[in-house]
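Q: What does the assembled structure look like for these inputs?
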Amino acid sequence: MSGPPAPGRRETHAEWLALLRLGGIRLAGGAFVLWAVATLTFIAMRQMPGDPALAILGGISPTPQAIAEVTREYGLDQPLFVQYGRYLSDLLQGHLGISYAQRLPVSQIIAEQSGATLQLVAASLFTTWVLVLLWTLTTTGRGRWIAGIGATVETIAAAVPPFWLAIVLLATFAFGLRLFPAAGSDGVRTLVLPALALGLPLAGFVGQVTREALVVTLEQPFILSARMRGASDWSVRWRHALRHSLLPGVSLSGWAIGALIGGTVVIEVIFSRKGLGRQLYQAVQSQDAPLVIGITLVIATSYVIANILVDLLYHIIDPRLRKDDQ
Amino acid sequence: MTAIAPTLDARHAARRTGAPWGAVLAGGFLAALLLASLFPWIFAPTDPLSILPEDAFQAPGLTHWFGTDQSGRDIFARVVHGSRQSLSIGLLAVGLAVAVAAPLGVVSGLAGGWVDRGIGWVIEILLAFPGIILALLFVAIFGGGIGPLIVATGLGVAPGYARMIRGQVLAVRNSGYIEAARALGHRPWRIVRRQLLPNAARPLVVVITLGVGQAIVWASALSFLGLGAKPPAPEWGTMMAAGRDFIANAWWLTFFPGLFILLTTLSTTVLGRYLQQRLEGHR
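A:
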């Protein structure tokens, strides 16, 4: 354990180069994973129930000619590997097919819906970290009782099912106190309850690991030396201990983003919000294969990219890791 | 962990768990839940499916502890009877996950080299889907219902388990007693069977305890979306879905089933952590 990094230290050229190289390696790995994910979803699409030609034509009972025409037009009569090649080249050009149920390009639906989901995920992650910083940072190492209550609250929070919390919040703050709207996705006010429903349980998880790191950090000699120099408790916690205790929580945030994206499905349904999660839910119910596949792919892609970014953030927060790269 | 004198370590451990009564409470709740799932009539003699329209929407009170739903069914009876489905879904899903993950993790950790790297990539690819999305994709292909729900939940958590088991096998493999067994000239298969597998499997108890709670949350989320157990089955997620239309005037329809999901998860977490400390000692 070396001492704290000098604040405001300029990163050297070589360190940034190493970071860039690491990013490149991670990106290549990510590209491979995404190719495999696309292949897996292609197989999944073939396994979905129902004749694709019938699904494309929709509800009205189609003539055999129409079926034959659609089968030819969409290349459904081609050998599987030809279809696979076409699927991959379409993907690379951003064509995700046409939604069976909505008769719109999947890419258009995703473009229209992803903004709302992105807002929700960002707001939830923000809520998570605000809660962690406020709660964990103030209650850790404050004697047996306060620290014990702090840790217990985190354990309980981590066990809360987000969809239950969403309904409790809805019943209390939307229907009971009428402080926030019960449904919709316009404006900051509609974001508050969904973000809290997703963010609070997550704060439980992130808070637990941050607390564990903080307990270790607060016992370090450099904390004692900061206290002896006359630094206030506030300054010791926020300026000296925090940065050393962030790593576990940040590395958990990669997993957390996945949990959040998964959580948006239920939360968007409960709050009748616009977004990818609710679209995915509806697509699964109406067996809209192209839309299911398209949204799944976009979610997997953003999850992989988020994990790469978190990994890089990790190396930016802790310069000690960068030494290992070189 | 002897009880003769409270060592510094023991005091540390006590501080970290927040006193052993937590584990006792959690174990007690889970035991009661298990009892309820086997013999529900002990706790709730009322039929969870009996309809009494004149009793509809009773608020929680002395006659109906958790109130009644739109058809006058007793929520407490339904929650108690629902423990069987929710608990067995959770247990079966985790069992399946371990059954899939253990061979992958053990082979990966033992073989090393290309096999390890190959399995590592497979896990990496499956982890690219957030678990619940993988489960949704599975439901989209194979349809809803209890069976697919269990498989979907199990497969959703399996990749994470496989990675953990692999790490465990690696850790045990490089430990001193394996080295000693090798030096004694034991055959590799015997070492795997007698030393490596039992030792690598010990933390699995913890994983399963922690996992059942998480699996129940997932499965009930899928049920809540209408993709799992079908009403009027008293499954906690399905009950919450049915109560969703009445949140504005009858909060108890959704509150109590969800509270039991929360209490179950909390109990498995607390108990799992306690077991972890007992098994691994204080790290």
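Chain B has a mean pLDDT of 80.
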